[in-house]
Amino acid sequence: MSNNKKVALITGANRGIGYETAKQLGEKGVAVIVAARNIKSAEETAAKLAGQDIEAYGIQLDVTNADERKAAAAYIDQKFGKLDILVNNAGVGPKEDDLFVKKTVATTADEFEYIFNTNLFSVVYLTNDVLPLLKKSDAGRIVNLSSILGSLTLHADPESPIAPFKRLSYAASKTALNTFTVLLADELKGTNIKVNSAHPGWVQTELGSVEHAPMSVPDGAKTSVELALIGEDGPNGRFIHLGEELPW
Hints:
This protein is of the alpha/beta class. The chain has 7 helices and 8 strands. It has helices spanning 16-27, 39-50, 66-79, 109-134, 152-155, 168-187, 217-228, and strands at residues 7-10, 31-36, 56-60, 85-88, 141-145, 194-198, 239-241, 244-245. The protein has an 8-stranded mixed sheet with strand order 3-2-1-4-5-6-7-8, with helices on both faces. Strand 1 (7-10), helix 1 (16-27) and strand 2 form a beta-alpha-beta unit. The radius of gyration is 17 Å and the shape is globular. The model has no long low-confidence stretch (mean pLDDT 93). This is SDR family NAD(P)-dependent oxidoreductase.
């Protein structure tokens, strides 16, 4: 592989938006590392992409597992010596009930811990593990998969389109993720790294609802791909959906 070729790590890349993000980046000439909790699934996904003339590598990465996060960073360092793009795509919703069932004070400790561990803590830890590799890139890009449900501005507006959707655990995890985006972007000012939050849209996935969501998976991946490939004059520390900035 040419050292000039961009290298991307996409978490939760064996299906849905993660897979489509890897596919679209690969079609644009990026070497993609597809990470999944199960190595068989990761390798099968990489082989599927390779069958479409995409340079792809599968690795096992449960983002909640510290040893696997460190192993992923070591693998990237040894094989590529750098990382150009990190797409923190892996995320979860509540195990019980539907994501769109309202629940605030009744939220259990187990639900909070399950969702925050994947949607926030693991993103922070993995980003920290691969940050030295991103600093070796000429144009490092970090894309955090957020959700419009993390917007406090829109939740506070009774007329907003997300007004009916009040699930504290999930919404709070994405609000906190947006905070991480803003603060990390500020911390990395003056470097070649840009950090942004992406709202993919209401997409036809298991989490988003295949039956009711209006957006296709390929369209849902577009924001992540665009932010992964932005130029020097692109946004930094922003919350974006299909090129439009969203309110925090």
